[in-house]
Amino acid sequence: MLPTKILRCSFLRNNWIRPLHVTSSLQKSEVDESRLEVRDITKDRTEVIPVETSIRYLKSAAYKQTYGDVPVWVLYRRNHKGSIPPRKTRRTCIRGGQISTGNPCPICRDEYLVLHEENVNLLKQFVCPHTGSILSYSKTGLCQKKHEELLVMIERAWDRGLLTFDVPFRKYDYSEYYKPENKDKS
């Protein structure tokens, strides 16, 4: 059993005490967070981040702490009214160099995720490992602008040979090449 630390919270209105338990694993994660540089969250997206910085970010401890081993779009949840989500995602998250929405898409939210054909580790997260097809914006939650940019960058990476893909199998109609044999001639 993990050692726990009991914290007491008192509420003035009801004047009752509720114990809260914090496990040692949470305490260890708080220690790890103190070693990483913590910056203020900014909505300004006018600064252009180089691709090399984005590639280094994908290998960093800050990326591992934020996303873990799952793709960047897995932890994102679309925010919408009602129980049925709209068919299409929003047009864009960034207007006039500023994040204009309260819940931006996974690429717009993190300024160090730069879509570029050389950023192969990021592009692989949006390609289905089983079929090799590009995942839909309804599954990934990307805004329309970033999804179009993603399609272009994946095509460019395929053209340059940075991303591998399976060539579709062609089914030939051999009746166009060979004359059908008549077995009725005896």
Describe this structure in words.
The protein is elongated, with a radius of gyration of 25 Å. Helices cover 31% and strands 10% of the residues. It is an alpha+beta fold and 186 residues long. The chain has 2 domains: 1-35, no CATH class; 49-165, 30s Ribosomal Protein S18 (Irregular). One of its GO terms (molecular function) is structural constituent of ribosome. Keywords: Mitochondrion, Phosphoprotein, Ribonucleoprotein, Ribosomal protein, Transit peptide. Its main location: mitochondrion. One of its GO terms (biological process) is mitochondrial translation.
CATH superfamily of the largest domain: Ribosomal protein S18
> Can you summarize the main beta sheet?
2 strands, antiparallel
Low-confidence region ranges: 1-14, 20-27
Q: Which of globular, elongated, flat, extended, rod-shaped describes the shape? A: elongated
Average residue-wise pLDDT: 82
CATH topology name of the largest domain:
30s Ribosomal Protein S18
Taken together, the total number of domains comes to 2
DSSP helical segment count? 7
Keywords: Mitochondrion, Phosphoprotein, Ribonucleoprotein, Ribosomal protein, Transit peptide
Main location: mitochondrion
Subcellular location: Mitochondrion
Protein name: Small ribosomal subunit protein mS40
